[in-house]
Design a protein that fits this description.
By secondary structure, the protein is an all-beta fold. It has a domain of 85 residues: Immunoglobulin-like. Helix content is 0%, strand content 42%. It has no helices and 12 strands. Strands 1, 2, 3, 4, 5, 8, 9 and 10 form an 8-stranded mixed beta sheet that branches. The radius of gyration is 19 Å and the shape is elongated. The protein starts with a strand and ends in a 14-residue tail after the last strand.
């Protein structure tokens, strides 16, 4: 059994057969982007909504980070935890000398941290961003990948 846990206290367990079950330890089943608390003087930070898939060769995470360009996303791997930070440029009024009368869309940065299970090969993790969608590929260590064993007579 392997477990991936994110900072929303959402635990995703995978059995040796590759089946996954998601359980929210805090009891909240939120499917919207959540604001990460900080100080009043900081830009807002949000935890992106993401999907996590398990295949025979590893995990794939797909996270929505609208407004993030590839050069504004930083992905780090430290002590088995993958950290993602996506910076979004502040919005400006569309016309010169104009101002927003109402702003319901809050602009902020994205932050996500996931503890990887031991079966993930940290040296083979890769990331790409396209149209504000982050895709993380997290292959399994060779020893953890399924293999066929020849049966002799």
């Amino acid at each position: 059994m392997s477990t991936i846990t994110n900072s929303r206290k959402r635990s995703i367990e995978t059995s040796p057969s590759g089946r996954m079950s998601a359980e929210t330890m805090s009891g909240s089943q939120s499917v919207t982007t959540q604001r990460v608390e900080g100080t009043r003087n900081e830009r807002p930070r949000f935890q992106p909504v993401f999907d996590l898939q398990r295949g025979p060769s590893g995990f794939t995470l797909i996270a929505d980070m609208p407004g993030c360009s590839p050069d504004a996303v930083e992905v780090r791997l430290e002590q088995g935890v993958i950290h993602v930070l996506g910076r979004v440029a502040p919005r400006e009024p569309l016309a010169p000398r104009s101002a927003f009368l109402l702003e319901e869309y809050e602009v902020g940065d994205y932050e996500l941290s996931l503890r990887l299970p031991d079966i993930v090969d940290p040296d083979a993790v890769s990331a790409r961003v396209s149209d504000g969608v982050l895709t993380l590929i997290m292959p399994l260590r060779p020893a953890a990948q399924p293999r066929r064993i020849a049966v002799s007579t």
